[in-house]
Amino acid sequence: MPSSTDRRPIIVLVRPQLGENIGKAARAMLNFGLTEMRLVAPRDGWPNPSAGPAAAGADKVLGAAKVFPTLAQAVADCANVFATTVRKRGVTKPVLTPEQAAHAVRVAPGRSAFVFGPERSGLETDDVALARAIITVPINPAFGSLNLAQAVILCAYEWSKGAVLEQPPREDLLPPAPQEELEGLIAHLEAMLEPKDYFFPEIRAEVTRRTLRSLLTKPGWNHLEIRTMRGVLSALQRKGSRRQ
Amino acid sequence: MPSSTDRRPIIVLVRPQLGENIGKAARAMLNFGLTEMRLVAPRDGWPNPSAGPAAAGADKVLGAAKVFPTLAQAVADCANVFATTVRKRGVTKPVLTPEQAAHAVRVAPGRSAFVFGPERSGLETDDVALARAIITVPINPAFGSLNLAQAVILCAYEWSKGAVLEQPPREDLLPPAPQEELEGLIAHLEAMLEPKDYFFPEIRAEVTRRTLRSLLTKPGWNHLEIRTMRGVLSALQRKGSRRQ
Fold first, then answer.
1. In whole angstroms, what separates CA A226 from the centre of its chain?
2. Which domains does chain B have, with CATH numbers?
3. Which residue in B has a C-alpha nearest to residue A217's C-alpha?
């Protein structure tokens, strides 16, 4: 059972299409010592009979894989969420190489997740919005064609390189709060803004929500900081002074 | 046409069995800018109709691949031959990680080759004997199951890290906003919290203000983000909907 001090990243596959690719990802993981896989809404359900043969013996990874309906639920307990994407325009999050991400995982307190999108399309904007940072493999600009298992293996490989040399994490720093606490803060603020028509007009509401989410995801606030922010919001909601 | 000063390693596949794996290796290579493939006695001859589909567009690598009857002939023009193997007993050659091998390729004069064995069995002792050094991927000792294309991609990836792969210009992230904009945000929020007695009792006010400041300083919000937060605060200050 991974403890909260487990420095190994969780591999999260979002809406994977083929069982075979889930198996290959498991095989890629185990080669470099990663064992915790989470699946978000796998297209063909789970378990998938095509996964086992492709895993080439990495059955224990598949057997322990957990399924979640949404990415938010899959990373609810993770302090450091990294979304893998090809280079995108207009991204306002830090972009790391697999090497830099591996380093970040090793030194950051709290559990980490590497999130991978579906085979064809990759992660959607709303998935990426949940992440603090982006991982992009620096690739031949004239031919970028990494498949899912290859992307997984490069990230797992980089993580494993420093794993043996790793320093104990800095326990004096509180880790970023689990994702679900951040979700609570975002929901709280949105509920306050709704009656003020902050999300009006409707046509821009989605973009506005995403902007707000990015903005509140960026800090990596810890448990205490999130609690303070919740307190700030509650204070602002009060009708008047609490000394009345 | 690669010149004698080309620093890119040649990928040599010795007696590969499946055309599909040759295609996957080509795809792995081109992702990281490698284009020169040599085949030693491919089991099913060459060209192989299964290779193209698996190459996922890396046809130019397959089209330029050269076939040789022996490994000695395939690497005849190479100054630096590296044989990839799993860890072997009784090897009397230097053993490098893919990272170390990539470095060696970049600094060594003359052309270099990375040599990979057949899918099932790997390189034979006589093949390894031709190499100056061995490349072994440090792998989970309890589960070593890298396939051919995965071994190729890890070596190609490491090589590419030090090569100057031309990347499309990176859209630079906006820097954190000037301090005065951050001060404006803090002052705005404090002014809203003051009448709600957020800073009461007085004896704790200083600590509370410092906590709030730390929390809002941590994100490093840029100019646009600060402006958005100011908009959020203004919306919360509104008496009701702005559509009245």
1. 18
2. 4-160 (3.40.1280.10), 179-237 (no CATH)
3. B219
Select from B137, B143, B243 the Cβ nearest to the Cβ of A30.
B143
Is the ipTM higher than 0.85? The answer is no
With an 8 Å Cβ cutoff, are A95 and B27 in contact? no
Distances (CA, A) of A26 to A151, A193, B97, B220: 12, 43, 23, 37
**Among candidates A57, A149, A193 on the partner chain, residue whose Cβ is nearest the Cβ of B235:** A193
Question: Closest to A228 (Cβ–Cβ): which among B161, B215, B221?
Answer: B215
Q: What is the pTM of this model?
A: 0.77
Q: Name residues whose C-beta falls within 8 Å of residue A136's C-beta, 6 or more positions apart in sequence.
A: A84, A85, A86, A87, A95, A96, A97
Q: Determine the residue of chain A that is closest to B61 in CA distance.
A: A143
Shortest CA gap A153–chain B (Å): 8
Cβ within 8 Å, pair B31-A139: yes
Distances (CA, A) of A218 to A213, B176, B189, B215, B227: 9, 12, 19, 12, 15
DSSP characters for B177-244? PPHHHHHHHHHHHHHHHGGGTTT-SHHHHHHHHHHHHHHHHTT--BHHHHHHHHHHHHHHHSSS-TT-
Helix (H, G, I), strand (E, B) or coil at B39: strand
Residue of B nearest to A59 (CA): B143
Q: Are strands B112-116 and A80-84 parallel, antiparallel or unpaired?
A: unpaired
Per-residue pLDDT reduced to its tens digit, B106-161: 887 778 999 999 998 899 988 888 888 899 998 888 887 889 999 999 999 999 98
Residue to substitute from A8, A97, A140, interface B, most B β-carbons within 10 A: A140
Three-class DSSP category at B66: strand
User: Which parts of chain A have pLDDT scores under 70?
Assistant: 1-5, 87-91, 164-173, 241-244
The two three-digit tokens of residue B76, written as one number: 């005849």
